[in-house]
Amino acid sequence: MPSLNDIRSTFLDYFRRNGHQVVDSSPLVPRNDPTLMFTNSGMVQFKNLFTGVERRDYVRATTAQKCVRAGGKHNDLDNVGYTARHHTFFEMLGNFSFGDYFKSDAIPFAWELLTKDFAIPKDKLLVTVYHTDDEAAGIWKKVAGLPDERIIRIPTDDNFWRMGPTGPCGPCTEIFFDHGDHIWGGPPGSKDEDGDRFIEIWNLVFMQNEQMPDGSLRVLDMQSIDTGMGLERIGALLQGKHDNYDTDLMRSLIEASANATSTDPDGPGKVHHRVIADHLRSTSFLIADGVMPSNEGRGYVLRRIMRRAMPMPTSWARRTR
């Protein structure tokens, strides 16, 4: 069974072999985007490359980006511990092209990595595309041999990514894994799509447009690729689990919490152990990147995370409200 460390290495090594520069994860406090509280995706450190403001000595990159989603637009704090796939801290695996390759390379890269390097059965995979993106649908048919019923056209923003009200944007294709009919849920776009049978594992964004202030779209001169795959989510799949918290790294933290409190990791306190495991990671990485508990901004979010994970005397809790 591959560990999360093995899976991360396999991903980065695959794209290194295919001409991508392996770029270190950027800090959780964004350097180039004051609109974000925390780095919440792999593309954040490359934002200026996508818009053409900045140039570097590479046009292909791959990263394992540390991310926090616990404040602002992306806030999963209150869901942690109760679901199989919500975290405040996680790693996002991604590959990026800055005006170099586009759909005809990005889709084959993804398919080869998943079905060969990760050995995921082809018949367990299906994809979504934006409903007008005939090009992406055609590439999936050609490269993966997927029939029409496993290339689902979605007419909503679920398959059209935007950086903001204006700026680079474009259609995306999402890759799903089918866990089988013994688990409730329908395919994406169906009335039962919120079930756990079909789980998204990778999102490929085709940044081919710029959204203008009047809402119109123009074709970008530099068309680019931005992808994101959660390490914990693909790890659960490759380790034969249906819950991110059952992966090797998360499980070791949960068991350490249970041992420290002499309780059952899967007993009545199960949710608490999951919260501690998740929040321990986010707290550690935020402090390592210079965020300290305080009464405002990032420090306040960190304090909330810490208070949610740690029992404290009632008198102290009142003083820190």
Descriptive report:
The protein is α+β, with helices and mostly antiparallel strands. The chain is built from nine helices and eleven strands. Strands 1, 2, 5, 6, 7, 8, 9, 10 and 11 form a nine-stranded mixed sheet that branches. It has a two-stranded antiparallel sheet with strand order 3-4. Helix 2 (47-50) links the parallel strand 1 and strand 2 (60-68). The chain is globular, with a radius of gyration of 20 Å. Residues 313-321 have low confidence and may be disordered.
- Please describe the biggest sheet, giving its number of strands, its sense, and whether it closes into a barrel: 9 strands, mixed
Strand content: 15-25%
β-strand number: 11
The helical percent reads 25-40%
Q: Report the principal-axis shape.
A: globular
Radius of gyration equals 20 Å
* Stretches with pLDDT under 50, minimum 5 residues: 313-321
Average pLDDT works out at 92
Q: Which oligomerization state do the chains in this entry correspond to?
A: single chain
Order of helices and strands: HEHEEEEHEHEEEEEHHHHH
Class by SSE composition: alpha+beta
End-to-end separation in angstroms reads: 45 Å
Instruction: Note the total helix count.
Output: 9
Describe the secondary-structure layout.
Elements (H helix, E strand, L loop, with lengths): L3 H14 L3 E2 L24 H4 L9 E9 L1 E2 L2 E2 L13 E9 L5 H15 L7 E6 L3 H11 L6 E4 L5 E3 L4 E12 L19 E14 L5 E14 H8 L9 H14 L8 H19 L8 H13 L4 H6 L2
Parallel strand pairs: 1-2, 6-7
Antiparallel strand pairs: 2-5, 3-4, 5-11, 6-9, 8-9, 9-10, 10-11
Helix pairs in contact: 3-4, 6-7, 7-8
